[in-house]
């Protein structure tokens, strides 16, 4: 591609490696943050933790580990992940864009080449769209077509359109399988009845500001 110029721009091996690295880093960073937040919210809401563990253990009953086929049947666990991505959007501000042409948006003049930043966190907490938006309620996604694949503009944890997060396909199983196995193999409690805080740290990815401390007790399969 670099030699014949068939794509119109220089495209060397270093460019390809950088793109692949972007995909893996984007997926692993968001997955790690989301896993931490999911466990935080579950131990803060024991009734939700029990319900999702019941589903996971019924689907994978008697198995030593959970597969992608098993995870595909864990609908409530998927809703837990969706709600985690809503309440704790991994990338609160989406990647900056720039307006190509001058336009008008809801009465505002937007000149050409204006820097545009979408606040995905605020959209996911909008009370005109979400009922009780500050509450962690996975059941809000039951019988709902809302998904994080970029088709619902009120829910954009990974962005949308051609600039959607390139690691989304990798991030999904990276979140589902580890979470399902953690819930399947262990019971989770808090040390000394602690209640973990939900303060977010500063950065491109919204990690939990303080470490999550939990007690894992092996569950007899």
TrEMBL record:
PROSITE patterns: CYTOCHROME_P450
The keyword Iron is assigned to this record: yes
Binding locations of heme: 165
Keywords noted in UniProt: Heme, Iron, Metal-binding, Monooxygenase, Oxidoreductase
GO function terms (MF aspect): heme binding; iron ion binding; monooxygenase activity; oxidoreductase activity, acting on paired donors, with incorporation or reduction of molecular oxygen
Pfam families membership: p450
Essential cofactor(s): heme
GO biological process: secondary metabolite biosynthetic process
Family: Belongs to the cytochrome P450 family.
Name of the protein in its database record: Cytochrome p450
Species: Thalictrum thalictroides
